[in-house]
Amino acid sequence: MPEPTRTTRLPDGIVVVVKEECATCHSVASVLRQLDDAATLTVYTQDDPRFPESPTPIHDADLAVSWHHRIETVPTVIRVVDGVEVERTVGWHRDEWVRVTGVDGLGIDLPAMRPGCGSMSVDPDLVDELNVRFGASLLASRRIDVADAEDDMEMMFTRGWTDGLPVVPPTEARVMRMLTGTTRAPSEIVATVPPDLVDVTVEKVAVAAVMAGCLPEYLAWVLTAVEAACTHEFNMHGLLATTMPVGPVIVCSGPGTRAIGMNSGGNALGQGNRANSTIGRALQLVVRNVGGGRPGEVDRATHGSPGKIGFCFAENDLDSPYGTLAVEHGIEPGVDAVTLFAGEGTRCVVDQLSREPDSLARSLAASLQAMHHPKLIMAFDAILVMGPEHARVFAEAGWDRERILAGISEHLNRSGSELVRGADGMAEGIPAAFADAPSLPKFRPGGLMLTFAGNGTGLFSEIIGGWANGDVGSKPVTRAVTY
């Protein structure tokens, strides 16, 4: 928020902000007269310039003072020393007013406490206009004038700013509202975005979040996803340039996923949830519009996949019998986190008959074996999104995360002679030098990851296959959410 100007700087002494349409403000009118006799007092009134009658108030007609000093509740009492706020209290609480003002015996005929009312400067009907009027100077983005006869949506299609779907026009008011979702300064550099290696600020990420349809409370998740995507480990540039149908998959966990309404239950990997859909989309719009990662240019995917519009879902960490992917990657339990994985679209594993863990582990292994190609090994990672009904089979048998992964992996090993090029009449496979290997794993150590999501209405799990892994490709990146 900008520093107060000369006209909005508070005077030394006691400052009280009130409004006439507040019953508590009316009830403390006598207290204001007491303070006027005992201290250096300045009263600002937000609505009626005649209220209170005494002491004579200053009319905060344009709400500039209230906006610059973050007045959320009236009455607000502030003590100012040498032009700097040192203490404040809101509503009416006799002991707090005495403490802040240093004046004893205030309002002895009043109840000890009464709540205040909402400040006009945070009124939903006014706040966007005030943010633009007083805070738009914070925004450094270029302004685009749109003619009255020009359609905003079509203009953004024409300029190539969209992912093929309509985007929300990022007006100053919408971007300012989006920035309320973080404590970070709009000018702060978040990351350097490939492929063009352009620095992206918090403001520019907020613009993309608006365009994607995010709410302000999603912004911290988008910022964290951008940071994770723009690391050497994740290798977003390589992910764009590959001809495989992969993009960033965002797996979220922690109490914040529930607070912002993310879906970890039925259809968690599909459409219908605003947070899931727009957080993933916002990341992709940053890569496209800031980093220059556009299909047909640096993005060379042969087929692509719907997930490249945006792929984001939450783990059901409350009900998970084996914890979360984020904790597995070193994040403390209960901490909001995102894991970015270079992944393709999902494929369903159907096993409606297995009631014993070994049988189900074999089914999952058989499906995982076919990922990308049955004879290609250790080059690709995967996430197994286990549904509640499948997870229950393992949980009832006492299998934890480590045992589940070990049990599945046990049935993924194959001899080199089965995997080499030409075996089973298929030219694809691993080099002939591995023909004598007695047992080779499908995944590198840690390359098979486990999450828990979905509802309990079917005996299904989902596989998200990965791109080339390790130093030659992409490594999963997990970050705690930064607010």
Keywords:
elongated; 7-stranded mixed sheet; 5-stranded mixed sheet; Glutaredoxin; alpha+beta; 2 domains; 483 residues
What proportion of the residues is helical, as a percent range? 25-40%
Catalogue the unreliable spans: none
User: How far apart are the termini?
Assistant: 16 Å
The chain-level structural class is alpha+beta
Largest sheet: 7 strands, mixed
Radius of gyration: 29 Å
Shape category? elongated
- Summed over residues and divided by their number, the pLDDT gives a mean of 95
Break the fold down into its secondary structure elements and pairings.
Layout: E1 13-18, H1 23-27, H2 29-38, E2 41-45, E3 58-59, H3 64-68, E4 73-74, E5 76-81, E6 84-90, E7 92-93, H4 94-101, E8 113-114, E9 117-118, H5 127-135, H6 152-158, H7 172-179, E10 189-193, E11 198-201, H8 202-212, H9 219-229, H10 236-241, E12 247-253, H11 255-259, H12 274-289, E13 311-314, H13 325-328, E14 337-350, H14 357-369, E15 380-386, H15 388-396, H16 401-410, H17 416-419, E16 448-452, E17 460-468, E18 477-480
Parallel strand pairs: 1-2, 2-3, 12-13, 15-16
Antiparallel strand pairs: 1-5, 4-9, 5-6, 7-8, 10-11, 12-14, 14-17, 14-18, 15-17
Helix pairs in contact: 5-7, 7-8, 8-9, 8-12, 9-12, 14-16
